[in-house]
Amino acid sequence: MSTPGRHCPLHYRTDPAALAGRTDVVAETVYVIGGMYGNTAALDAVLRLAAAEEEQGRPAPTLVFNGDFNWFNVDDQTFDRINTEVLRHVALQGNVEAELGSPDGEAGCGCAYPEWVDDATVARSNAIMQRLQGAATRAPGHAEAVSRLPRQIVADVGGVRTGIIHGDPESLAGWGLAVENMPAPGETPAVIADWFRRAQVDVFACSHTCLPFIQRFPVDGRARMVINNGSAGMPNFRGDRRGVVTRIGSTPCPEENRLYGAELNGVFCDAMAVPWASEAWDAWFRRTWPSGSPAAASYADRLQHGPMHGFRDAWRIDSGDVPA
Description:
Radius of gyration: 18 Å
Order of helices and strands: EEHEHEHHHEEHEEEEEEHHHE
Number of strands: 13
CATH architecture of the domain at 14-71 and 150-291 and 299-316: 4-Layer Sandwich
Shape: globular
Largest sheet: 7 strands, mixed
Strand content: 15-25%
Oligomer: single chain
Number of helices: 9
Distance between the termini: 44 Å
């Protein structure tokens, strides 16, 4: 049996066919915001980006938080701030929210970490979850609300159907759409083709695995796309502290925030930077998670310097300009 943190509960299973024939959101622009991780500075930055689009005469974006908006926010005030704001918008469960709303003792953090993640990281994530569950116990209204959230939806932007999920199409905590599992550009594994056919979508927008990328997949003579935003609330590239959200729009992404992207059937699918770096939030993190704590050990370096991941690792399109 797999251990807590690596175990994937049966109730995490999702069915890509459940996306077929449904439309939950119709909008001109959608932000898919995965992995906020309790970062209030990142949340504020996303809200500013959305407001700026309206101020510049673009359509107001629909904000879709596709899970793991909780993580570092273990104090009562920050837990309330994150959940109060997120629940004003469209929100989905991630594994973190699943373990806040209906904890499963065998799941641990619910991350279902693959074997390439070391045991110490898994143990620290389980410890973070235990502390976060304490905050949820003190806020039963939020815990109950996140327990009712859906796990996958379909957004229609300009006729392009996007399946918004957390992990992969078959599991809330699945790693099937992790960059580490992607084939060479231009190739389509049978399982990914099957997911697109069963879901009847053009795009899968996901998060969970914490490293962003974009890749096209030919399926039945049509281009499809996977875009993983990595994390909105943590850095995604070495030497770059910005978070990333996925922007799917009928209008182009504002150039000042666009990192990379591709057009699909006249709709713009882009990775958009979230400039959240904040001395005040850094100070809050150090107070809440001091040196030696599980979150500091796992995330302090990434929060300051980013992961060992570059734009060339994220850009997995078989043609076009490679981001610098």
